[in-house]
Amino acid sequence: MTEASEKVRGIEYLPIFPLPLVLLPNELLPLHIFEPRYRQMLDDVQEKKSFFGISFFDAEEGFETRPEIGSIGCVAEVREVQTMPDQRSNILTVGLIRYRLVDYIDLGTPYLTAEVEFFEDEIESEKGLTEVADEVFSLFERIAQAAFKLSGNRGRFPEIQRAEPEPLSFLVTAAFNLDNEAKYGLLKMTSTSERLKKLRGFLNQAVGQMESSAEIQKISQTNGHSKKKLDI
To answer: What are the pLDDT digits (tens) for 137-172?
Structure first.
């Protein structure tokens, strides 16, 4: 049993916070809590385990009034709370584990509460998984180095800590500005290798452009003098 699944063991019902965004496991998400019903939700969860569910929901895209039964969300664990004099709060959360929304439960609260099923990725062959994870990490590191150069930072590029394949797949996903549909598609997958292969495709499309942009910026900073010829 993983640390994340151990944390939610025994939890059957979860407060649900519908938002027009997708939260991933291990992703940091700051939130500003101002609506009375969600201020109440925050008070309630702080008395227990400080968990609530974030389900992707965009009211402007349909006629539904709440996330659909069977939809996928992610548990948000409250790490920090800064409460203001008017009772609004700035909080810092981190994605913990995914859930499938089974049914809504009426507990008399002003916010939604649902029965949920928690899940993680399926167990896969370590050999094939390690190979694709190595490719994704190498591509991600190249893009991060290019972004470091483009940002104008000087000095040594900071070392990126390598994670295990499943958390690596979510950390790389969180690092890119993917649209909600693409991000939700990756969240739903239960195969780490398939998620990593999908990410490999995104990274392969981006890495050449990022590295070329970084090289062009480097040349511009040296008045156009470079030993390397670029085809632009």
So the answer is: 999 998 888 887 777 666 666 677 789 999 999 999
Contacts of 203 (CB under 8 A, 6+ apart): 136, 139, 140, 143, 172
Handedness of CA 169, 59, 110, 40 (dihedral sign): positive
Q: Which is nearest to 57 in space by CA: 82, 93, 23? A: 23
How many other C-beta atoms lie within 10 A of the C-beta of residue 168? 22
Paired strand residues for 28:
94
Instruction: Give whole-number Cα distances, 187 to 50, 56, 87, 191, in Å.
Output: 22, 11, 33, 10
Q: At 49, is the secondary structure helix, strand, or coil?
A: coil
Query: Of 203, 184, 213, 218, which is closest to residue 55 (Cα–Cα)?
Result: 184
Q: 155 — alpha (psi -120 to 50), left (phi > 0) or beta?
A: left
Cβ atoms 204, 218 nearer than 8 A? no
Please choose, from the candidates 121, 98, 113, 122, the residue with its C-alpha nearest in 3D space to the C-alpha of residue 12.
Answer: 113
Q: Looking at the predicted structure, is the pLDDT value of residue 132 above 60?
A: yes
The domain over range 3-119 is classified in CATH as 3.40.190.10: no
Distance from chain centroid for Cα 195: 13
Quick one: average pLDDT of 32-40? 97
Q: Are 48 and 10 in contact (CB under 8 A)?
A: no
Q: How far is CA 181 from CA 13, 119, 177, 185, in A?
A: 26, 20, 12, 6
150 token code pair: 């483009």
Domain coordinates in residue numbering, the chain:
3-119, 126-220
